[in-house]
Amino acid sequence: MGTLHRVALGAALAFLFTTPAFAAPVGFVPSAGVWFSQDVFFADDEVKVLTVIVNNSYQKLDGVVGFSDNKTLLGSTAVSVDFEQAKQVSLLWKATPGDHEITVAFLSAQAIDLAGKTISVTDAQLTPGGAALKTNYFVDTDTDGDDMGDQVDTDDDNDGLDDAKEAEVGSNPKKADSDGDGIKDKDELAKKTNPNKADTDGDGVQDGTDVFPLDGKESADADGDGLGDNGDPDDDNDGLSDEKEKEFKTDVHRSDSDGDGVKDGAEVERGSNPRVVDSDGDGIDDGKEIEKGTDPSKSDSDADGLSDGLELKKGTNPIKADSDGDGLNDKEEVDGGTDPLSADTDGDKVPDGQDAFPKDPKESVDSDKDGIGDNADLDDDNDGIPDEVEIAAKTDPKKADTDADGLNDKEEQDKGANPLKADSDDDAIPDGEEVLITNTNPAKADTDDDGVQDGKELERRTDPTNPDTDGDGVKDGDDAAPLYETEQLLRTMLLLLAFAFSLAALGFGAFAIYRKRLAEIGEPEVVWKQEEDEIEEILEEERAEKSGLAEKAATKSRRKKS
Question: Is 200 in contact with 194 (CB distance < 8 Å)?
């Protein structure tokens, strides 16, 4: 309600309710008139048309009020007013441009008089001037919505170009973008495009979307480098030429075809797929992988057995196989039920990788790998000797073979060997080797009592478990040749003699051939005789030497037999 209307209505109501009863006003209040909910409004605005009705004559007044615009009924509103009361009546109206005569009038009315009787109320029974009211109002258009009517606005469409200039260039002063190409008329004049032609250069692309609206050969510049796409070898400036983009089937006008945050050229260079958001299928977009330092072409960047995406969900480090540095990689910890983010899952101050029982704070070592922790195991090294006995004997209860000689402590104990000494009998053979390889006694230096220690026998290649290795009746310790029997020596001598006779036969054959050859060339008989004698002497010496060796062998044999 306008200020003046509110003042008028207040005064009218005050007058009505302070007037003596004989005046008895009923109906519209002329002094209040007809007014609107807004002082200033324009075409297409919705406003309320208001008036007020008073009842000072009847116990109750009921009626229907009609609202008309230029004698055309806009609508009606029912009203009921008690005795000595006034009531505001309104109708919502969407204003149209132009001159308007707004009228309010009773379409019907009835009352309950002071005697309680219902009666019809005619216009004649209403206070003079209270049967109908009128008001005139001009509604202007506000094209640009600047709360300034077009009749007083010098730039109706608020396009920056005043109406007079628009008339000069032929553009529409009521339309900021006369040709509907997306550019205001003033801006078109600044760009030297035609505000009355949507496609100034006639290339089929409207000026508003044409990056080169005055160049009929170019209309787009995907990478904004000032070079039209038709002449640009890399339209989107992604580092991958348009020709290469065709090979990879990527979008030549979109630098990041898959929208993963990495340009197509960079993806090709890294080995990831420029058409797939998550090239390696690990649940992380390629762009995010690069941010976090993981490999977008490898689902498990640190090769710990867990995908990068799963590591991020678990909070582990996808570029560090052992996130907590406890000696177990993250996959091993997940599979084993330990915490890959805590180096000591059970809090026993032993890192999980070194803890045989990483989920049991009471155990961490299992020396004999029998599944029982050393704290509960009575024989930690499982060597058959209780830990308490080992401690008393000063052997290592956590090491089955204290002296590392190849026999566990119990085996040494059973064989009478020293579990604290690798070579109990000092025969130069470790106890384990004596039992497992040479079959000698680790607690006895000379197993076969032949006068030679077991280690020495091995050096001489005699048998440490046989006092007479060559079976010649002489103990190895007393035998100058403990590896050879007399018969074996005789066989050797006979072989040598046979070899010697073979050489002699070959010599005679060669001599015969030589003599025949000399005879053929006529050498004197004396030469033949001389050479024959020399050969005979050589053969005689060889026979004497072999005879001496045989005699020595026979003598040794006789000694052994005696």
Answer: yes
**Cβ distance 539 to 510 under 8 Å?**
no
Q: For the whole model, what pTM was predicted?
A: 0.46
In the DSSP assignment, the letter for residue 413 is H
Q: What is the pLDDT of residue 131?
A: 82
Compute how many other C-beta atoms are within 10 angstroms of the C-beta atom of residue 143. 19
- Tens of pLDDT, residue by residue over 46-78, are 999 999 999 999 999 999 999 999 999 999 999
| Helix, strand, coil percent content, the chain, rounded in steps of 5 | 30, 15, 55
Q: Which residues contact 117 (CB under 8 A, 6 or more apart)?
A: none
pLDDT at 501 over 80: no
Strand partners, 69: 72, 102
Query: Coil, helix or strand for 260?
Result: coil
Q: Length of the chain, please?
A: 562
CA distance linking residue 385 with residue 378, whole number of Å: 9
DSSP-assigned letters across all residues of 150-174:
TTT-SSTT-SSS-HHHHHHHT--TT
DSSP character for 101? E
Rounded to 5 degrees, what are φ and ψ at 4? -65, -40
Pairwise CA distance, residues 139 & 149, whole Å: 9
- For 229-279, what is each residue's pLDDT tens digit? 899 999 899 999 999 999 999 999 899 999 999 999 999 998 999 999 999
Q: Which helix (H) or strand (E) holds 13?
A: helix 3-18
CB 250 within 8 A of CB 265: no
Span 373-423, pLDDT tens digits: 999 999 989 999 999 999 999 999 999 999 999 999 999 999 999 999 999
Across the chain, what does the average pLDDT equal?
87
SS3 call for 66: strand
Sequence-ordered alpha helix ranges (H) in 397-440: 409-415, 431-433
Return d(Cα 197, Cα 171) in angstroms, integer.
Answer: 10
| 58 closest CA partner among 114, 142, 133 | 114
DSSP code at position 482 = T
- Distance separating alpha carbons of residues 367 and 14, to the nearest angstrom: 109
Diameter over CA atoms, the chain: 202
Distance CA 142, CA 138 (A): 13
Residue that has been written with the tokens 């007393």 in this structure: 478
Structure token digits, residue 535: 């050969």
